[in-house]
Amino acid sequence: MTVHEDDTPTVRAAGCVLWRRSPFDGGLEICLVHRPKYDDWSHPKGKLKRGEDALTGALREVAEETGHSCTPGTTLPTVRYVANGRPKRVDYWAAEASGGVFTPNHEVDRIVWLPPRAARNRLTQARDRGLVDALLDALHVA
Question: Structural domains in the chain?
Answer without folding.
Answer: 2-138 (3.90.79.10)
